[in-house]
Amino acid sequence: MSNASWTPTRRGFFGLAAAATAGMALSACGSATNTPGGGNTTGGGSAGNGAKPIRSGAAGDQFFIGGMQWGAPVSFSPLNASPAFGAAANGMDIMYEQLIMFNQLDGKIEGRLAKELKEVDKTTWELPLQDGTKWSDGSDLTAEDVVFTFELAKEANVGYASIWTYMDSITANDRTVVVKLKETPYNPLLVRDFLCWVGILPKSYYGKLSPADLTKDANMSPLGSGPYMLDKYDATQIVYKRNDNYWGKSVFGEAKPTHVVHPIFKANNDGDLKLESGELDGSQQFTAQIWKMWEKGKPVATFLKDKPYYLPGSMPSLIFNVTKKGLDNVAVRKAIAYAVNYPDIAAKAMSEYSGEMQASQILPQGSEEKFYDQAKVDATGWKYDKAKAIEILENEAKAKKGSDGIYVLEDGTRLGPWKLITPTGWTDWNTSCEIIAKSLQEVGIDVSTNFPQAATMIDAMQNGNFDLAHYSYASVGPASPWTRFRDVLSESAPIGTRAFWNYGRFKDDTVKGLLEQAAAETDEAKLKEIYQQLDELYRKEIPCVSAMYRPSQFYEFNQGTWTNFPTEDNAYCPPTWKGPGFKVLFNIKKVGS
Questions:
Q1: What pLDDT does residue 258 have?
Q2: pTM
């Protein structure tokens, strides 16, 4: 693409902010050094036939979830920089609703406020609203509310403002929303992505705010359209009560819990204890060695019965600053790719929650699997091989080991000292960094770790002020793997100017055209060919190395009070608390009922 679509966007900034928040929520993540046993011995974590709920009375009718709120709420506006649980895009969509939803299991688009996404032609989409959509105060939710939500992004610097890079107009035709895409730049993937995550806002409230106040307003008495309404909150919990007049009963059924409660813990360990005891029904946090809970006989389970227990949704990576001497040498980057001890990262940093790493920017499971090619990965990819790494350093990079044991290139460039950064407190990521640094030191590359505060680290990474960084590019979504290839390969801002993708500043003139082709291609076979060209370029140039697989959200649950959670054998919705994952609230059943 050739214009504003290739400049850093506010959308990218908010994506990073969300990732930073999510990472801080994973503080005290702890590492595991033991490997799990033979899988979920509870056969799905059931409390058993004839069992009584762990919680009784009013608490037994409520749904308790943790891992998405780590401090007292300061805002319930999704436009604010720090929206609380229930309003945050990466939380649980129980108050604000999107037009459509993305299912990471099959890549399909499902209706939410809209019945469907109908592609009339290349640039015209229609989204008819569901019958009887209403706000929780009983007023009508109209197509005008939808248009207003997106139109305000023209004037206000909100997180989804860059949709207007690709969208020409959005209008209301009675109860149908009509979206017109731009022909240049043409990117239906990103427009679809926005439609899946932007929560629709009531014009009756936000229409009274000035553009300058839209992102500042906290909206502590929010009005939404979802199955739950804010009931109360303090520094210890956020409580939502069921909207018994929810418009979506005829579409999704009736939500089973009377309330959704999110306790606010100080650390992950508190959440782990509550999950194991059944005081939490669901959790979204890194829990080391979760299999030990069901080995104790606790009714705890994950979506997959056997390791890695979680579906991959993202690939935290070792990102090279390719403008740095030594790291600008592709042979050095190739040697590093072979030197990293991926099995050790999976075992110690990810508690065996990461499957075997593959040299691909395409996830090998779920909605991206149709674009993945194992044969090509095996032919041109890499795996952990210390001897191979040394061979590449000596034969391809033409490096010689100095008296201190560190390799030096022919031009005198010493391979290090380099710092590997990731935020402090992201302890599973910190453990991964220590393993990477040790791996590289063992083959004669001088790397040490540095863990600054998240804001400091992200600022350094975005401005190119780093050697090596451990961070994630795009997770699975309606536009992936396109967004991930954009993040890894597409030219970004120069060093010293904030970039929202390609932090290592890799450049290749072929990428722009391939991404433009992929964005516009509708034939799945041809699209796979394009993605394979991008994947081959990734393996040839190695601007980063994916270190581990990680779920888009951790999905674990205790079936002591509620049962019938989605699993691989009962996949009525994907293992995520957001998007179509909200269906869990309509399908769980009280134990013993």
A1: 98
A2: 0.89
